[in-house]
């Protein structure tokens, strides 16, 4: 078994006040609601509105200047998995490059998400097939024994609260910003995608779909 581990821990650049936490409803895609603990603050944050009306994004800075937390909330006619399948590299880049920095009331759900999934099918679609084949697999740089890969499993954990984010992971198109949408607040009370993004490379370090913050 080969294990590659990544660990990330950082406080928000502007931490939320624990005294402002409150209980409210999170609206699931099924139409039902669950009670979730939210944390809120008033301050300057980055907001991006997709010109195709597929999603809007809230951008919160970490104390590490090169990393940002993106909370991507979808339009009502889109599902989380539906949008993930069409989300492009340029979309993530624009979320950071074309944000509007404005003073808003922000509410985000507190959650801890743990997920585990096989990535074999994803690799197949990317053309990575030899490592799963008895005859073609060549892992001589790892071992002198005849080896092949049976399964590759990715496990990730992300926890968000007032102070910041703890995340860990282990692995065994140009879009222009439309006119700014006026709003008084950014309330993340429906399914969303949370991404930790590296500003320098515009690559996601972690990505989790949040359908129900109460379900680990």
UniProtKB/TrEMBL annotation:
Pfam families: Serpin. One of its GO terms (cellular component) is extracellular space. GO terms for molecular function: serine-type endopeptidase inhibitor activity. CDD domains: serpin. Residues 1-213 form the Serpin domain. SUPFAM superfamilies: Serpins (SSF56574). It comes from the Eukaryota. InterPro entries: Serpin_dom, Serpin_fam, Serpin_sf, Serpin_sf_1, Serpin_sf_2. SMART domains: SERPIN. Belongs to the serpin family. This is Serine proteinase inhibitor A3K. It comes from Thelohanellus kitauei (Myxosporean). The lineage of its organism: Eukaryota, Metazoa, Cnidaria, Myxozoa, Myxosporea.
